[in-house]
Amino acid sequence: MAEKISAGEKVVPPVLAGDGGAARLLAQVLPEEKIDSLIQEAKSSGTPLDGVDGLLNHMTRAVLERVLDVEMTEHLGYETGDPAGRGTGNSRNGKNTKTVSTHNGPVEISVPRDRQGSFEPRIVPKRKRRTGSIEEMILSLYSRGMTTRDIEAHLKEVYGVSASRELISKVTDVVEDEIRQWQSRPLDEVYPILYVDGIRIKVRDNGIVSTKVAYLAIGVDTDGFKHALGCWIADSEAARFWQKVVTDLRNRGVRDILIACCDGLTGLPDAIRSVFPDTTVQTCVVHVLRNAIRFVSHDDRKRVAAAMRRIYTAPNLEGAELALKEFRKQFGDKYPGAVDVWELAWEEFIPFLDYPAELRKVVYTTNMIESINFQLRKITKNRGHFPDNDAAMKLFYLGLRNISSWRGGTSGTATPGWKIALNTLARTFPGRLKF
């Protein structure tokens, strides 16, 4: 509430309902000894400090009712019993009882009425039975992977608040406009590095539950900070889908990407080159290693890993080709699948060999984006499937917003060793960086 509250001759600071707002208010206007007395009386009577029947709940009720009385005075223009109110055409007309849900539990309050019915409370608006803190709590719990059923049970058990699953769903729907703004916000003109990776989810589509993939794009800006540029759920064949994604980045202001790092996503390299013809598409080396090692028995994995290391640490293309030839000679008969993985990924792997060591460390892997996907998988694992794409996008967005330091992609996290990599990028791609 932005307005000051008059209480006799005192001016009380603005009140924030819930989250201890009542306690903060009383701490400002009551002497410390009075607060100590209230706490001592609560302890003596066995009254808890928080919870449904706690002291904070009682204080919240007192503050809310006081604010409502002050709001009514402001609405009418005169205090209770003031002769100035005679003949004004409107007056107080008793009170209604209303239960509102707060952070400390349900609170039953008395809401004043006026005869004309024109009073519109601001602290607890008409037809509203929740303070803002409950909605924030629901969003917080939802973004951490709790289902609507879990949140309903948690609020009832811990806070004594009855919130139906339909209500919880409506509360989480408030981010839909925020998601649309995030998906269409302007982007930087140049991203030195773009990472793309996906996470599999189950979505009900036309009555049938099918497996889809939500793809996340992370851009590293010229200052070395990583930003979630967008999240897209594939709902069409690969080439058409990736063309849509890349065109979306272009329409939002991206004019150049120096290196795009991804993991064998069919159709993505061609889509990137069609819109950003100068971009170098680099496969994730770690993904190649993982895919190849799947074909290898446990007893041979150390030897195979050592042989593959000679490929991706080679000083140049010629050295890598010799290492691959030796790898094929040594393990081709026993593990042809591992050799095939390298040969199929070769064209998107070899750009990596042209980079100096400082730049190789930055583009070596999409592990950075996979760490984000790991956290997103944690919040999706409790759901058998999503009812539609919008429901999945809502959870992904809230999850991204909740990841430390990301704030929904509006601020990023730094890239280790970026200054050295930036100088290497400037030499490797002359004239293309924009500051």
UniProtKB/TrEMBL annotation:
The keyword Phosphoprotein is annotated on this UniProt entry: no
GO function terms (MF aspect): DNA binding; transposase activity
Region of interest (Disordered), ranges: 77-113
Keyword check for Metal-binding: no
Annotated InterPro entries: Transposase_mutator
Listed PROSITE patterns: TRANSPOSASE_MUTATOR (PS01007)
Family label: Belongs to the transposase mutator family.
Free-text function comment from the UniProt entry: Required for the transposition of the insertion element.
Record's protein name: Mutator family transposase
